[in-house]
Amino acid sequence: MKTTLSARLFHSLLGVCAVGMGVAAFAQAEAPRYGGTLNLATPSAAVSTLSWDLADWQATLQTRDTGQFYEQLFSVDLSKAKSRGGKYSFAISGWQPSDAMRGELAESWAWTSPLILEVKLRKGVKFPAKQGVMAERELVAEDVVYSFNRLNSSPKRTQNYFDHVDSVVAKDKHTVVFNFNKFIADWDYRFGNGFFSGIMPKEVVDAGPGNWKNANGTGPFMLTQVAMGNSLTFDKNPVYWDKDVIGTKEYKLPFVDRVVHRVIKDEATQQAALRTGKLDILSSISWEAAKELKKTSPQLKWSRWLTTAASRIALRVDTKPFQDVRVRRALNMAVNKQEIIDKYYGGEAEMFTFPMHPEYVGYHRPLKEQPASVQELFKYDPAKAKKLLTEAGYPNGFSFKMQVCTCNPDQMELMPLVAAYLEGVGVRMEIVPLEYGAHLSAMTSHTNTAGYLTSIPDVNPTTSLRINFGKGQVYNAPMMDDPQFDARVAEANGERDESKRQQMLKELTSTMLDQAPAIWMPAPYRYIAWWPWVKNYGGEMFVGAGRFAPIHARVWIDQDLKKKMGF
User: Fold this and answer.
1) Where are the domains of the chain?
2) What torsion do the CA atoms of 479, 482, 488, 493 make, to the nearest 10 degrees?
3) Calpha distance 246→187 (Å, rounded)
4) What is the pTM of this model?
5) What is the C-alpha to C-alpha distance for residues 101 and 19, in angstroms, rounded to an integer?
6) Distance CA 123, CA 456 (A)
7) Cβ-based neighbour number of residue 562 at 10 Å
8) What is the Cα–Cα distance from 101 to 377, expressed in whole angstroms?
9) CATH architecture under which domain 312-521 falls
10) Share of the chain residues as helix, strand and coil, in percent rounded to the nearest 5
C-alpha cells in the first residue's frame, strides 16, 4: 500500500516546535467515506469507567473514555506509524517519542528561557454547544490555566506531580506561559500528553464534572450515552477542528458519525462479537484466540503488540517476611518463568520488559546485558531459593495473601500456576480475588496485602521508576522507601541531555530490579484484529495516556465492502 509522510518539521523539545493542522494518512485510491458507526472493544474492554471528573486522579482508565472529548496540548504524529512507513507502532499507552511529538491544542511551543515555556494555542478550536451546560465557544488560554490549577489543587492528585511548576498564566487569549522552578524531562507528559492533562471547561465543572451527561470537550467525539457495564456511545463533534490529508486532498474529521465502546468482560464473547461483525476492531486478543480466529475468520487483518502491562506480584517491603531481600529474591528464583513462556504462553511472551519496555529505544537494557545478580532473578533455581529462605529464617517456608483483580482472566488463570511453583519451596500464596474497583482501591489507599498482583504499565521511560517505586506514589504497591534512589531518579529526570539521562535510568533500573520488590513475570504478546472494511487504519492503539480518539477519528467504514462480505 502506497503511503505518504507528513512534511512537518519536528525540532528538539528544548527548541521551537511548530506543527501543521493534521497528520498525513494512507494515500489510497479510494476517497474517504463519511458516516457509519465504528464498534470496538479496547484493550481494557472488561472495565467500566470509574469517574468522568478529570480531577479524580485515581480513576486509572479514565482517559480511555474522556480522551474522546477532552483534548490535550500534545499528541503524536500518526504519519510516523509503522503502517505508514514510520518507525513507531504507537502501541505504548503513555510514551510520546520526542521525534514524533505533535501539537494537539498547542500550535507551537518554545522555551523562551531555561525555565519558561510558552505555548501558542490553535485559534478557532471550539467547545460544542451542550444543552444545560454551555454555549458553543472558542478554546482560550484561560481554559488551560483553569484546568491545570484545578488538577493541581485536587485532593486526589499524585504527590509532587506538579511541584516543578511555579505558575501557569494566560499571556493573551491564545498564549499560555508555564513558569518552572526546575526542569524535568517529562514536562510534556505531566501536563501535555499524560493521564492528567485533559482540558476541561469551567462550565462543565459548574454543571457537575462527575455526571457524564455534562461532559463536553474539544475532541472529535461527544459522549451521548452511557449504558453502564455494556457500552459507551460517542457521536461526532460537528465543530471539531482537525483535518486529515488523504493523497493530496484535505478532509474534515472525524469520518464516522459514531463510535461505540463495547464493555465486554468475557474474552470468548469479545471474540464472538468480532467474528460475527458486531465489532469492527478488537484490540486485545490472546495468542490462543488469535490462532483460532485466523482459521475461522481468515479475512481479518492483524497486528501483534507486546504488552507494557507486565504482570508482577508486588511484595510489600514494609511487611514481614518481605522486609528481607533474600526472601524476595528467593520467590523470584522459585518461579519457572521460562516454562511459563514456553507452555502457558506458547512462546508468545518476553521474559524481561519491565520497568523499561523494549520499545523504549535508548532506555531499555536487555536482560543479557544486566548484572549477573539481576539475571539470576529470571532463572529457575528452587535449590538456591530454599537456601535463601533458610538463611532468612524461613526453612519451612511461610504463607502470605496475594490480591488479584478478577477483571483480567489471564492473570486469574496464571496465578494458581505461580502458587504451585512457590509451594515447591514451602511458600503458600493465598489468592484473594477482588473486583476492579476494590482491587484498585487497595493499592491507591496503600492497604493492599503483603502480596498484590499489579500490571500498572511502565507508562514512559522517565516516569516508570518514579510512579512504581517512589515513596508515597499511588502505584507503589511494594511500598518502596529509598530516599537515595528517589533522589537519583529525580536527578535523572532533571537531566536535559537525553543520552546522559538514558544511561542514568538504565543504571537505576538495574538497581531496582536487583532489590526484587516484586516477583517479575513474563509479558505476553497480544493481538489486535480488524475487518477489511475498516479503512485508514494499521493497528495503532494510542496517542499517549491511554487515548486513541485521534486514531479513530481518521478511520472510515466502507459500508459497501461490509455488505459485500455479508455483514
Assistant:
1) 17-284+526-564, 312-521
2) 20
3) 33
4) 0.83
5) 9
6) 37
7) 17
8) 36
9) Roll (3.10)
10) 30, 25, 50
